[in-house]
Design a protein that fits this description.
binds alpha-L-arabinofuranose, 18% helix, 694 residues, single chain, eight-stranded parallel beta sheet, 12 helices, alpha/beta
């Protein structure tokens, strides 16, 4: 063995490769040559290649990105009970709360919460408390903007005390008084500011702050007080009114997404016609939004409405990819709208595009200006429906797609139209040729590895692909992906990059999950959070690494020899005990055992046209480290100092709110780069390396 290693070193030295340490050779055993033809740029990678897909699922907006802290703020979540609200009593005070049908004039607000405090005696207090989305996050020295509609019984003197306090009521983090509540509905607004220091109650949390808090509006004055639309906002990203949570936006912006696909997903379709994403009911002041049920079994406040989606995209410097409702719902085909019944919704789509792109001299452009954004947004892509191959949608899709296609192209000929039929629906015939097909993949690890070659032989003249949802997520256990899934994702992404001429854009799904018990409807999501802390998963970091180093053109790259794996050697996603015995859960291999051989290494080589950098994305799914002899051909110079990032770790490694940085990429500095140099890939790793040519 020792003789063989020494011999290999000699051979490599003769071939001109920079030597690496002997221990690396021992670990990596069989060196592999990676040849990259820098002088033969191939297909272009569209700047839109990496984007985000989003919908209301897993408390993605309410209880997630949308910064509102009050849960069930319009008291519609349950018509029988004021869920998430309770009565709180202090100093022997008595009182009760009840839901009432008591509309606020000229708004969409119908339900109210009535506090009966009529039996209060001197120095007693009673109030209504909201528990937030698994707690109200309290941070030090932070302003919170509270607002609510209220009216009181005649003669009620007030004031009302508005407070953020610990759940046991013992610590008041911030409070203010609001006076003169009248017997007519009126909106009140007040700012609460927390102290310079707030207790940090959670173990292991790096930020000072806590979630074990409630929001309370209370009174010492006898009488009754009714409330409607109670709201509490912390500071938001870019200080937008009705805006987004700062930490989550920072995680998303760091990914440098080029587009945002919204509003779904199943959320676009809705569980039924009444609860489709009806964009016209999601614009304007929040008191004008009636709210609706999401297909994920909770009511959406619609605080994240059409304009907020557009703001969100704008704040990330991303383009919108708009999904328009197309007559299908998540109801097994119970009521699919076609023909004349669909026509008003085709008009809705045209109105929606006008709202987004129209000048202020158009009806809907003027409405957008009134809502606060006079400048039109850029919109180049519209998707007609979502997954119309499901819910018995296939038979009617061609006619539905044609109606939207004709109407949109007639008015907006430059808009590219995406069909939700997949490239695998080979027998489906479109009467109008879509600009893109939307492929969706939720796959296990072997499939992800195999699919690194999915588009290698795709007909270059066929319709281009938008991979509008994908994830390595099987077995479907856990909130966010473990490292094993990130390996599958990375391998698959190298295949997408290599085939960027046909797979032009892609986005992972789902994007967000509130990890509190009851928060998640879909297992395995890119970014997790509770009310205070957010974290990226290993898959998040893979996407961030790839998206931040996209490159503009693909360079031919080849391993020689290409190590292969048997099915037994494929990385296995360890199972949490709860999933043991579940037939979907055999370590990410899926119900049918994989057969054949699998690549052990994956590569995408690209060039950044701006600065000439050569970018290597390398995935080692082998259980051993792999030494590479990298041979960059057709380039006169590669600077010897190069940098990169690598993520590797235990296959079951995850990040959590308590350990949000448990597994993250580490920086790599290379001092021996050149047109020929050696580099070792750690076992089970994803590396992105930037090589400078000038
Ligand atoms: O991403 C979760 C769901 O998966 C989406 O809503 C739907 O489009 C797909 O089936």
């Amino acid at each position: 063995m020792r003789i063989r290693v020494v011999f290999s070193l000699m051979v490599l030295a003769v071939a001109g490769f920079t030597a690496v340490s002997r221990s690396s050779f021992v670990a990596a055993q069989q060196p592999v040559t990676l040849t990259v033809r820098v002088d033969q740029p191939g297909v272009k990678i569209d700047p839109l290649f990496y984007g985000l897909m989003t919908e209301e699922i897993n408390y993605s907006y309410d209880g997630g990105l949308y910064a509102e802290l009050i849960r069930n703020r319009t008291f519609r979540d349950n018509p029988q009970n004021p869920v998430n609200w309770s009565v709180v009593k202090y100093d022997g005070g008595e009182g009760s709360i009840a839901l009432e049908n008591d509309p606020v004039p000229d708004t969409a607000l119908t339900a109210a919460l009535k506090l009966d405090a009529s039996s209060l005696k001197a120095k007693q207090r009673v109030g209504v408390a909201n528990e937030g989305y698994w707690g109200i996050p309290v941070k030090p020295d932070t302003p919170y903007r509270a607002s609510f509609y209220a009216k009181a019984s005649s003669g009620f003197k007030g004031p009302l005390t508005v407070a953020i306090e610990s759940n046991d009521g013992k610590t008041v983090h911030a409070k203010a008084n609001v006076g003169q509540i009248t017997s007519e509905w009126k909106k009140y607004t007040v700012t609460l500011r927390t102290g310079k220091q707030v207790p940090s109650q959670e173990v292991g949390r790096p930020d000072q702050g806590s979630t074990t808090n409630r929001f309370v509006i209370s009174t010492e004055t006898p009488g009754t007080v009714s409330f409607s639309l109670v709201s509490l906002f912390p500071p938001t990203y870019k200080n937008r009114a009705n805006g987004n949570r700062v930490d989550l936006m920072e995680l998303l912006v760091a990914m440098k997404p080029a587009f945002l696909r919204f509003p779904g997903g199943n959320y676009l379709e809705g569980p039924n016609y009444e609860n489709r994403f009806n964009w016209k009911e999601t614009i304007g002041p929040i008191e004008q939004r009636p709210t609706h049920m999401s297909p994920w079994r909770y009511r959406s406040s619609d605080g994240m409405g059409l304009l907020e989606f557009l703001h969100w995209a704008e704040d990330m410097n991303a383009e919108p990819i708009l999904g328009v409702y197309a007559g299908l719902h998540i109801d097994n085909g119970a009521r699919i709208l076609t023909g004349d019944a669909l026509k008003p919704h085709v008009q809705d789509a045209l109105d929606e595009i006008e709202y987004i792109t129209g000048g202020t001299d158009t009806t809907w452009g003027a409405r957008r200006a009134k809502d606060g954004h006079p400048k039109p947004f850029k919109l180049r892509f519209v998707e007609v429906g979502n997954e119309d191959w499901l819910n018995m949608g296939t038979a009617s899709y061609d006619s539905r797609f044609t109606m939207f296609y004709d109407a949109i192209k007639a008015k907006y000929p430059d808009i590219k139209i995406i069909s939700t039929m997949r490239s695998q629906d080979r027998n489906f015939v479109h009467s109008r040729k879509p600009d893109f097909l939307d492929d969706h993949f939720y796959i296990n690890i072997p499939t992800a590895l195999r699919q690194a070659h999915l588009y290698d032989n795709y007909d270059r003249n066929a319709t281009k692909i938008f991979v509008g949802e994908w994830a390595t997520n099987n077995p479907r256990v856990g909130d966010t992906p473990m490292m094993a899934f990130a390996l599958g994702d990375a391998a698959w992404l190298t295949g997408l990059e290599r085939n960027a001429d046909v797979a032009v854009m892609n986005c992972y799904a789902p994007l967000l999950v509130n990890v509190n018990p009851g928060g998640r409807q879909w297992a395995v999501n890119l970014i997790g959070y509770d009310a205070l802390i957010s974290f990226g998963s290993p898959s998040y970091y893979v996407q961030k690494m790839f998206s931040n180093n996209r490159g503009d053109v693909v360079l031919p790259a080849k391993f020689d020899p290409l190590p292969t794996l048997t099915p037994e050697e494929i990385p296995v996603a360890p199972q949490p005990p709860a999933a043991a015995g579940n037939n979907r859960g055999n370590g990410g291999r899926g119900p049918t055992p994989p057969t054949g051989t699998f690549d052990g290494l994956y590569v995408s080589a690209t060039r950044d046209n701006g600065n000439g950098d050569v970018i290597l994305k390398l995935v080692n799914v082998q259980v051993k480290a792999q030494l590479l002899q990298i041979d960059l051909q057709g380039v006169p110079t590669i600077k010897k100092d190069a940098s990169g990032e690598v993520i590797s770790g235990e296959l079951g490694a995850i990040n959590t709110v308590a350990q949000r940085l448990n597994i993250v990429p580490r920086q790599v500095t290379i001092r021996n780069a050149g047109t020929k140099f050696s580099y070792e890939l750690p076992q089970h790793s994803v590396s992105v390396i930037r090589l400078r040519t000038r």
